[in-house]
């Protein structure tokens, strides 16, 4: 594997779901690789995304390895197999340790045989094992999880030793549980790629700018310093998750899902992050982004909280727009009842490109204002200009292509 840089950003991942036929798989790969201007940058094809999550009830157990094999044979036929590797990003729940000690790690017992077949496939083809590791999720799912242990540089009472190796953060412990699982099964040299690592900034009491910066900078500092984990001392190969917030992503796993970006939706960096490049500013803001007018939709000062239309209107707005910044410990968690309602109305209004009718909630509950209702950490955002559809409630959300390109270049320039 040619190491271009010791870390990369998920921008260049090619995500390919191909659970159809061999032929479909083959054509998809060839078409994409040959047609793409980014051909030189493609190093991996990722098949699926965390297919063995227990919430999928085993739906993808039978199809994942055949899909990997199909894509591999397509790459081989195209003569690209030496340069481009096939892998499958797995959730860290494909391995476990009954004692929590990395040295007791092994693959999850219900998928042990399948995991060994996949590991053999990866090893035979010189491809890496790809795993997504999320200390934030450890904290989210376990309220008793020791906060400091989720980060990289906080000396914490949760540190422990395992065979003389010191573990002072959960990422190292989790990563090395995988190393032990591989080693125990005869694949101790298989390379590992961290397919996703990051920390969200909103939507949960532990999702904020401070923690996200602390986590991501702590991680990057280790990479920059050439430091790996106790079992694999060389720096890890990782993709930061993610580039941008995604305001329409499913929040079934939690409200934080829409806030993983290093950048807000409009391409503005959320916090300083040194990536160890010549650009000391780290993240570069998008250039040439244009915004809609300085107008917000709020709850009318003359409307009453007791109006029976309030609850259904807020539900309607939140179901179609984004209210994940409301709730305990979030950026807008301290709003008044009126503030909450205004936030919901404004989100709906902005996501509909400030369409007049999108601020027309029943009983005259809403009104457009030119006074920014933002307070403290709570930002009432204005949507960026869309060059595409501007009419219709469903149309035109998100980036214009020119903005996106300006942004992508600004971002990439941080790496040059
Ligand atoms: C898994 O099973 C649960 C309970 O039977 C069901 O609600 C859910 O939709 C299933 N998920 C998938 C991906 O099949
Ligand atoms: C990290 O350590 C500092 C200093 O001991 C402490 O103030 C901070 O709260 C810790 N951060 C976390 C997330 O535990
Ligand atoms: C792993 O790599 C080392 C160093 O290249 C080598 O000595 C060792 O035999 C390899 N082990 C396996 C299991 O391939
Ligand atoms: C950990 O690292 C972050 C980012 O470099 C820094 O802001 C924070 O102060 C550090 N915490 C400790 C306890 O050193
Ligand atoms: C505002 O909305 C959030 C999220 O729905 C809720 O937790 C909070 O209690 C609300 N605040 C008030 C004052 O109603
Ligand atoms: C809403 O406001 C308009 C104009 O002020 C008024 O004509 C209308 O009766 C109001 N509707 C309700 C339901 O209060």
UniProtKB/TrEMBL annotation:
Please provide the record's keywords in A-Z order. Answer: Disulfide bond, Glycosidase, Hydrolase, Signal
Q: Which residues form the X8 domain?
A: 295-380
Instruction: Spell out the protein name for this chain.
Output: glucan endo-1,3-beta-D-glucosidase
A family per Pfam: X8
Per its UniProt record, what PANTHER family does this chain match?
GLUCAN ENDO-1,3-BETA-GLUCOSIDASE BG1-RELATED-RELATED
Task: Kindly state which reaction or reactions the protein catalyses.
Answer: Hydrolysis of (1->3)-beta-D-glucosidic linkages in (1->3)-beta-D-glucans
Q: By its UniProt entry, which SUPFAM superfamilies does this protein fall under?
A: (Trans)glycosidases
The record ties this protein, via Gene3D superfamilies, to: 1.20.58.1040, Glycosidases
Coiled coil regions, renumbered to chain: none
Task: Give the Gene Ontology MF terms in alphabetical order.
Answer: glucan endo-1,3-beta-D-glucosidase activity
**Family named by the database record:** Belongs to the glycosyl hydrolase 17 family.
Q: Which domain of life is it from?
A: Eukaryota
What is the enzyme's main class? hydrolase
Q: Which SMART domains match?
A: X8
Q: Which GO terms describe its biological process?
A: carbohydrate metabolic process
Q: Does the keyword Signal apply?
A: yes
Q: Cross-referenced PROSITE patterns, in alphabetical order?
A: GLYCOSYL_HYDROL_F17
The residue range of the signal peptide is 1-26
Q: Which organism is it from?
A: Populus alba x Populus x berolinensis
């Amino acid at each position: 594997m040619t190491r271009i840089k010791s870390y990369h950003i998920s921008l260049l991942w090619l995500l390919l779901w191909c659970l159809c036929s061999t032929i479909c798989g083959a054509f998809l790969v060839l078409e994409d690789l040959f047609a793409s201007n980014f051909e030189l940058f493609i190093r991996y094809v990722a098949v699926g995304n965390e297919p063995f999550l227990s919430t999928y009830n085993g739906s993808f157990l039978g199809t994942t390895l055949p899909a990997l094999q199909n894509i591999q044979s397509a790459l081989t036929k195209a003569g690209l197999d030496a340069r481009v590797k096939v892998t499958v990003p797995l959730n860290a729940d494909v391995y476990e340790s009954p004692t929590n000690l990395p040295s007791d790690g092994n693959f999850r017992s219900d998928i042990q045989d399948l995991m060994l077949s996949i590991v053999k496939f990866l090893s035979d083809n010189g491809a890496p094992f790809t795993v997504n590791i999320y200390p934030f999720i450890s904290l989210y799912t376990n309220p008793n999880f020791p906060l400091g242990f989720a980060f990289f540089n906080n000396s914490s009472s949760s540190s422990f030793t395992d065979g003389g190796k010191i573990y002072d953060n959960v990422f190292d412990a989790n990563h090395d549980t995988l190393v032990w699982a591989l080693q125990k099964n005869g694949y101790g040299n298989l390379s590992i790629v961290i397919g996703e690592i990051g920390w969200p900034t909103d939507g949960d009491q532990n999702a904020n700018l401070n923690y996200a910066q602390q986590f991501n900078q702590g991680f990057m500092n280790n990479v920059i310093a050439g430091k790996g984990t106790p079992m694999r001392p060389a720096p890890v190969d990782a993709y930061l998750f993610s580039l941008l917030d995604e305001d329409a992503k499913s929040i079934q796993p939690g409200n934080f899902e829409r806030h993983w970006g290093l950048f807000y939706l409009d391409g503005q960096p959320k916090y300083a992050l040194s990536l160890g490049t010549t650009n000391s500013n780290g993240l570069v803001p998008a250039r040439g982004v244009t915004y809609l007018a300085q107008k917000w939709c709020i709850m009318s000062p003359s409307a009453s909280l007791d109006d029976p239309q309030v609850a259904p209107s807020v539900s309607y707005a939140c179901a179609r727009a984004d209210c994940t910044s409301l709730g305990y410990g979030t950026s807008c968690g301290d709003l008044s009842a009126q503030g909450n309602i205004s936030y919901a109305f404004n989100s709906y209004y902005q996501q509909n490109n400030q369409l007049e009718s999108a601020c027309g909630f029943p009983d005259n509950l809403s009104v457009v204002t030119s006074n920014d209702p933002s307070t403290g950490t709570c930002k009432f955002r204005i949507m960026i200009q869309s060059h595409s559809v501007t009419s219709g409630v469903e149309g035109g959300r998100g980036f214009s292509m020119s903005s996106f390109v300006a942004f992508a270049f600004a971002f990439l320039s941080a790496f040059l």
